[in-house]
Design goal:
2 copies of one chain form a homodimer. Chain A is an alpha/beta fold. Chain A is built from 11 helices and 6 strands. The relative contact order of chain A is 0.13.
């Protein structure tokens, strides 16, 4: 994993700076560089919460070039390319693609975010090695600065792994459950041609629901009792 | 894709409510329900920006139950389980897993977010069919409310592609299923003191498994047949 430097270009609202610092600490990022920012003021510290230490250690510089020099590679966050900048911009990648790309890299990566109102200017975008755009709906494509930053931090913090949903009832417990369900089908003389399919379906539902141990015991209890009641009633006939 | 309803439980800061509304419009979500919120005030509208229309159409209710009734399935956003609630909580899934799960579903899904300070209480978490936790760093695991919401919205807006769309068994079908299960408990003279708890548990398992229409009909058929067999055997005695 690379080492990340978060660079905010001329941020205008102290609350946003604080919010970015907070999100940085949520996702294990430490280096904040502010280029020609507004006065930090109380709001910045208030919004930073437990990320206050990041704000206190932030570096303030006057020129973007000073920040860019600190990183080996610059990732610029931008909206969808407009006609005016499409000519020279490479097509941006998504945050997920960025996370996949970065997962296997080392080095110092600058994550550059633009002003709240005008974003990054064309001249600034030209300095970026990679552009990233967060997919949004056309009705309102402009994200809050700290929201955009949070999404990138989040993606970079937990890069893609295999998505395995955990199940809880153990395999032994699940066998018991499936046996009880099969017994129930037997006792109620369920249509033979549907039996196998129904058992498989039930097994899948149980796996998907991810039963807790307690849920397993309760549900198994219901089936077990149903089987016993039917058996007893048959004997009493 | 399901239809989402965003539910904020007793939000305390107008700015957060506005920020959530803004993020909702970024990611094409429209239905906001506020349960016993603070006064909305200027900050809420100021932070909502182009998502102001969402705030203006937000529904305000007094009780969580009113909001829960609007959805077929409830997803609760929570931090990592603590020792005090680990006993009864299922292990939460990640936002990416949630997006994968939802990609192939339809129906009405409630996304429930807790208070800024105390999150969702144990009693409230028990109402959730699915729990989701955003992976964060242990140094500062507590996300800002609107940051957490934005990450979920973002993941659900561009889910992994899925070819097969499954329809959630609708609320009418689910009522039929729950009635059949209740009938079965009745016929097998299930312990009365456990009956209510077991019914609730069954309802949750079914909701969580996200039954397809076909699965619903098959499972309902099994219960229906079991009830009939027991009834008939009793009469034949």
């Amino acid at each position: 994993m690379p080492e990340y430097i978060v660079i905010l270009m001329e941020p205008k609202f102290p609350g946003n700076i604080g919010s970015v610092a907070r999100a940085m600490s949520n996702f294990d990022l430490g280096h904040l560089v502010l280029v020609n920012p507004c006065e930090l003021g109380d709001d910045a510290y208030r919004y930073s919460k437990h990320g206050r230490y990041i704000l206190e250690n932030a570096m303030v510089v006057n020129e973007l070039s000073e920040a860019l020099d600190m990183a080996d590679i610059i990732v610029g966050s931008t909206g969808k390319p407009t006609d005016s900048n499409r000519k020279f911009l490479r097509e941006p990648i998504t945050p997920k693609q960025l996370a996949t790309f970065m997962a296997s890299k080392t080095g110092r990566v600058g994550l550059l975010f633009g002003r709240e109102d005008r974003g990054l200017l064309n001249e600034e975008l030209k300095n970026c090695d990679i552009l990233v755009t967060i997919p949004t709906h056309e009705i309102n494509p402009i994200l809050n600065l700290s929201h955009a930053a949070t999404i990138l931090f989040y993606e970079l913090f937990s890069p893609p792994k295999s998505t395995r949903v955990k199940t809880f009832a153990g395999s032994k417990e699940k066998k018991v459950m499936n046996k009880l369900f099969a017994d129930l089908l037997e006792e109620i003389t369920y249509q033979p041609y549907k039996k196998e399919k129904t058992k498989v379906m039930f097994r899948k539902i149980v796996a998907r629901a991810g039963l807790s141990s307690n849920e397993f015991h309760t549900l198994a209890g219901v089936f077990s009792r149903a089987v016993k009641v039917v058996k007893r009633l048959k004997q009493e006939k």
